[in-house]
Design a protein that fits this description.
Elements (H helix, E strand, L loop, with lengths): L1 H25 L2 H18 L8 H10 L3
């Protein structure tokens, strides 16, 4: 059953990739931005200001990673 599942996804992979590429090519970026504009403006008005950009915190996390 697992082999059948793997084979099914192997066959579907290229077809799904073709669909993804077509959707990217046909995407209307201006329409997408217009649809997101209200949510973005709402976030700007209601979100509390951040004390930093997050870069310092990210560098602290990276410093903790094993070398």
């Amino acid at each position: 059953m697992i082999r059948q599942w793997v084979e099914t996804w192997k066959g579907a992979g290229p077809k799904l990739e073709a669909i993804r590429h077509r959707e990217i090519r046909e995407a209307d970026n201006l329409k997408a931005l217009a649809l997101l504009e209200t949510a973005f403006n709402h976030a700007l008005r209601t979100a509390a200001p951040r004390p930093t950009s997050g870069l310092v915190e990210m560098q602290t996390w990276f410093a903790k990673l094993p070398k």
